[in-house]
Design brief:
The structure holds 3 protein chains of 3 kinds. Chain A is of the alpha/beta class. In chain A, 36% of the residues lie in helices and 13% in strands. Chain A has a domain at 2-241 and 456-471: Amidase signature (AS) domain (Amidase signature (AS) enzymes). In chain C, the strands form 4 sheets. In chain C, strands 3-7-8-11-1-12-13-14-15 form a 9-stranded mixed sheet. A 3-stranded antiparallel sheet of chain C has the order 6-5-16, with no helix packed on it. Chain C starts with a strand and ends with a helix. The chains are: A alpha/beta, B alpha+beta, C alpha+beta.
Chain lengths: 478, 95, 478
């Protein structure tokens, strides 16, 4: 079954002429036929007939794309009712780069509406389910991408990460997810949630594929003012290094109440493994960690309230008009947005609008920007001395569908370990490092300094190659 | 800080969001919870701390004043809910 | 009670860049709707702005020319409000760190100079255009104008009369035109002006309640609207009524201002730094380079004209109104003609021609050396002043050289001696008295005879040759 393979394995087989692209597609399609009705990983089903360049690097290897990344002439709706039928007239920069390398775009994956969530339950198209346990969430917001890869309904995928939206679902689905340094990958064509935090990144079956995919999408883009003009490393070359002498910090603020015992045990074991492989560990403090969620929900919702103002029914997407009244234009705005956005989107727009509104800017937004400086400084200080920071990705394994939906704050707190990396702009990877007693995957998070993805790849690859966690597949109950 | 239903109404109007009565009710309760949680930021001494609006020290990013092709009008209007000729059409705007 | 008028002006000018402020679409005026748009200026989901380098340089130049303090750090902010001409429902603008602060313009009053302080100069993007059809239930939107760089120049309330407002606008426009960064054409909408006006009892410090005037389509309109508004407010205050703070529209046809009457919401623009754009810092070198690129400004030029060229201030002002006219004028001066003489030709016949045809100076096909040639012809007595005016007219309307125009007018001088001998013979024969006068020592009589010869030749005779022939012949007689 070619759909269970990684991209780099398929490239080898294609290069040797042992398989064809059509065989890959057909295996994927039969898997989708089997498992997709239960998992619902896709918002817009794969439907590709693109010509394949057989001489290209990827030779038509398909990739699943999160539904908030613009694909020319293909639906891109952020899994929201308000973007009903929206077909962008352009490709995101990452999509252009993938197509140049010979990838074919294979479906748009389900997500929390506008990436607002940690469970993939707020999608207009309904929830995606975790392949390891269909009663549980796949995590979010890139839950569709993670579930598709974990269920072998996709070879690999792109997600986006604003507060953990790649890493947390990767952890909950037992695969690899990477959020690059802010500015490393162009955001052009990523429908913005919080512009100062968003990054596109790989969701893959192993660390090698993550490096391969980052190689393709990373690099400066003149269409994105926040894209950094620093030459991207060859991340594959980082994988050959060992971890001897790698200095890793363990932040004590991450090992506290609320951390699941099984998760904690798995992380400790991972630490031991890396220690055996030659890394050195030391406990450190990131004292402002506890403020990260509060800072995040001010900044992210404020930016989102402004970013989402454009969805108004004028140029594209849903338009609802009411009875004739005094100001039909304003009525159209309110009804379109009232009907087009789901509950969580409305809640965040209200919160974001509130913290920016007259008289509250200093108390909330400006204060949050200042505390953000402190959170960033915590990391700057640690990375003066250490190469990596090691933490759990999520305090718990996958939770049950519906469990946290009505309690926004408890949902927000599921991102407690992932948010800081976005606030500090640093890269972070999640990779499988164990299973709970309930046979649910546990994710290990490794962070490094800005533009030091090489350190994180080095640690992650060494760990992965010396464990078997990435080889364990879910037993999907169909 | 206490968010009343009136505050939510005011903010919803700014954000041009129509909310049902029960949404107003629910949101004001939930937002109070969230804001109470956010209150903890008040304990941080930020008196000498500069704000971080941009996490990376990038500055002065510009492009040359060089023409790039625009979209064709068909592409521009392809997604429009309502159009007339090459214009987008909207309900009457009252100034 | 005697009142003092307090006026502050907000001027918006389109910068004359090739492309829009944040994307590569053309800024050309008057094309088919929605044909100069792209994902960026349409605010399509996923698109990102990148600042036009020219727009930034032009803005800084204006700030410097308006004597603003050079800013070391500037940033862009989002101004959030919903309106269908604003595709993102926020405008990229500048809030607390604009391009220029604390400048001034000097204006000339009857017998004094006055400084009008400039509060701020900031760069923003223009909105699209709405078309409202009378008696219809819809509006149409064209986004071609959307994203054109717009510079907002806000004065302090230092203006105390409509005349001062007029002078301020005239000077501001001239400075901007000299910089070559905008056409400042109110009819095409490349310059727009709103005014805040209030009255206060003479001697009082506190400002009265102001109204905001909009919809003036010319400088004259601004003056008339202010005149009207002063009378209206005086009338109200005189009767002990209060002024309502509101926006009033100038009605050009009815020559009055009227309240917009719409229920204006309290504005709550929720400004915050645009996370899609990075901040800008200006190096000393950058500022120095721009300073060097600033041409001589109108005030300096006026001083030079009155100083070096001996023009009166009034005369200098006539020329400096138009930068291209100055260039023409100075080229003529450079060719060795007395400035005053050139001034007379410009202020008289040339400006009359410009007024009559409505042409721009640069559209006129008149080379400086041709005007100089014409003036030399007059100086040499080859052309009478009257004849020269006719020639000039031919030059302007037919775009010919001075030589060609003289020929065309049939004013070519006769220098052929044989032809002239015949004329002189006739003159001597017909004017025996004058001949006798000359022969008896009245030297002046020669001039009369030359004049008669000119008359006979219909002004075509070369007076110098004629004089020589007469002298020769009369000497022979004696």
């Amino acid at each position: 079954m070619l759909n269970t393979k990684t991209a780099h394995e398929l490239i080898d087989l294609l290069n040797k002429g042992q398989i064809t692209q059509n065989e890959i597609l057909s295996d994927l399609k039969s898997q989708i036929k089997k498992t997709e009705p239960k998992i619902k990983a896709y918002a817009h089903a794969p439907n590709n007939s693109e010509p394949v360049n057989k001489d290209s690097f990827l030779k038509g290897i398909p990739i699943a794309i999160k539904d908030n990344i613009c694909t020319k002439e293909a639906l891109t709706t952020c899994s929201s009712h308000i973007l009903d039928g929206f077909i962008p007239p352009y490709d995101a920069t990452v999509i252009e780069r993938l197509k140049e390398k010979g990838a074919v775009i294979f479906g748009k994956t389900n997500m929390d509406e506008f990436a607002f969530g940690s469970s993939c339950e707020t999608s207009f198209y309904g929830p995606t389910r975790n392949p390891w346990d269909l009663k549980r969430v796949p995590g979010g917001s890139s839950g569709g991408s993670a579930a598709a890869v974990a269920a072998d309904e996709a070879i690999w995928a792109l997600g986006s990460d604003t507060g953990g939206s790649i890493r947390q679902p990767a952890a909950l689905c037992g695969i690899v997810g990477l959020k690059p340094t802010y500015g490393r990958v162009s955001r052009y064509g990523l429908i913005a949630f919080a512009s100062s935090l968003d990054q596109i990144g790989p969701i893959t079956k192993d660390v090698y594929d993550a490096a391969l995919l980052l190689n393709i999408i990373a690099g400066h883009d003149e269409r994105d003012s926040t894209s950094v003009d620093i030459k991207a490393d060859d991340y594959l070359s980082c994988l050959k290094k060992d971890v001897k002498g790698l200095k890793i910090a363990l932040p004590k603020e991450y090992f506290i109440k609320g951390l699941d015992k099984d998760v904690e045990a798995a992380i400790k074991e991972a630490k031991n493994k890396l220690e055996k492989l030659g890394a050195t560990f030391k406990e450190v403090s990131l004292p402002h960690t506890k403020y990260a969620v509060a800072v995040y929900y001010i900044l992210a919702t404020a930016e989102a309230s402004s970013n989402l103002a454009r969805f108004d029914g004028v140029q594209y997407g849903l338009r609802c008009t009411g009875a004739k009244d005094a100001n039909p234009m304003i009525t159209m705005y309110k009804q379109t947005r009232g009907k087009g956005f789901g509950s969580e989107a409305k809640r965040r727009i209200i919160l974001g609008t509130y913290v920016l509104s007259s008289g509250y800017y200093d108390a909330y937004y400006l204060r949050a920007l200042k505390v953000r400086s402190l959170i960033k400084k915590d990391f700057d200080d640690v990375f003066k001395e250490f190469d990596c920071v090691l933490t759990p990705t999520s305090p718990t394994a996958a939770f049950k569908i519906g469990e946290r939906l009505d309690d926004p704050l408890s949902m927000y707190l599921s991102d407690i370990y992932t948010i800081s990396a976005n606030l500090a702009g640093i890269p972070a990877i999640s990779l499988p490092c164990g299973l709970t007693k309930d046979k649910l995957p546990i994710g290990l998070q490794i962070l490094s300094g800005p533009f030091k993805e090489e350190n994180l790849f080095r640690a992650a690859y060494a760990f992965e190659q010396n464990t078997d966690w990435h080889k364990i597949k879910p037993d999907i109950k169909v | 800080m206490n968010i009343t239903k009136d505050t939510v109404k005011y903010v919803a109007n700014l954000a041009r969001l129509e909310l049902a009565e029960e949404e107003l009710e629910k949101f004001s309760l939930q937002l109070n919870d969230i804001l109470r949680y956010i209150e903890q930021l008040k304990e941080v001494d930020i008196s000498k701390i500069p704000p971080t609006a941009h996490v990376l020290p990038i500055k002065n990013v510009t492009r040359k004043d060089k023409l790039r092709p625009s979209l064709k009008a068909e592409e521009v209007l392809k997604n429009s809910p309502q159009k007339q000729g090459k214009f987008f059409k909207v309900p009457k705007v009252i100034e | 009670m005697e009142f003092e008028t307090v006026i502050g002006l907000e001027v918006h000018v389109h910068l004359k860049t090739e492309t829009k402020a944040f994307c590569g679409c053309s800024t050309e005026f008057g094309n088919e709707p929605n044909t100069q748009t792209c994902p960026v200026c349409l605010g399509f989901p996923g698109s990102l702005p990148v600042l036009n380098e020219k727009a930034l340089e032009y803005s800084v130049k204006v700030a410097l020319a308006l004597n603003c303090k050079a800013q070391e750090f500037i940033k862009f902010d989002r101004k959030n409000y919903f309106y269908p001409d604003l595709p993102k429902n926020y405008q990229i603008s500048q809030y607390d760190m604009p391009i220029g602060l604390d400048g001034f313009i000097e204006i000339d009053l009857e017998n004094a100079k006055k400084k009008i302080r400039i509060k701020r100069v900031h760069l923003e993007e223009d909105a699209g255009k709405l078309i409202h059809k009378e008696d219809s239930d819809y509006s149409l939107v064209d986004y071609n104008r959307c994203g054109i760089p717009l510079l907002e120049i806000v004065s302090e309330p230092d203006i105390n009369s409509p005349l001062e407002a007029f002078e301020y606008l005239k000077n501001l426009k001239l400075i901007i035109q000299y910089l070559g960064v905008s056409d400042c054409d109110m009819e095409e909408g490349s310059l727009r002006c709103d005014a805040n006006i209030s009255l206060r009892p003479k001697g009082e410090e506190a400002l009265g309640t102001k109204t905001e005037l909009k919809n003036m389509n010319s400088f004259k309109g601004v003056r008339l609207a202010l005149d009207y508004e002063i009378k209206r407010q005086q009338g109200l205050l005189g009767k002990g009524h209060k002024i309502t703070q509101e926006t009033r529209l100038w009605d050009e046809d009815k020559q009055l201002t009227s309240s917009m009457r719409s229920k204006e919401e309290a504005h709550d623009y929720r400004y915050f730094p645009d996370p899609d754009l990075v901040p800008f810092t200006f190096s000393k070198e950058f500022i120095e380079r721009l300073k060097k690129e600033i041409p001589e400004l109108p005030k300096d030029r006026e001083e030079r004209y009155t100083g070096n060229f001996n023009l009166s201030p009034k005369e200098a002002e006539v020329i400096i109104q138009d930068k291209d006219l100055c260039v023409f004028f100075e080229k003529c001066v450079g060719l060795g003609i007395e400035p005053k003489k050139i001034y007379n030709w410009i202020s008289g016949p040339l400006l009359a021609y410009i007024n009559e045809t409505g042409k721009q100076v640069k559209e006129i096909k008149l080379e400086p050396q041709e005007l100089v040639e014409l003036i030399k012809n007059v100086d040499d007595g080859k052309l009478s002043n009257l004849a020269a005016k006719g020639v000039f007219s031919v030059m302007l309307y037919e775009g010919t050289t001075a030589g060609e125009a003289i020929k065309k007018s049939g004013l070519t001088q006769i220098s052929d001696e044989k032809e002239l001998e015949e004329i002189v013979k006739k003159v001597i024969k017909e004017n025996p008295n004058s001949v006798n006068d000359f022969l008896s020592g009245k030297e002046n009589a020669i001039m009369f005879l030359v004049g008669q010869a000119m008359k006979l030749s219909k002004g075509k005779a070369n007076p110098k040759v004629v004089k020589d022939i007469i002298l020769r012949r009369l000497k022979n007689v004696s």
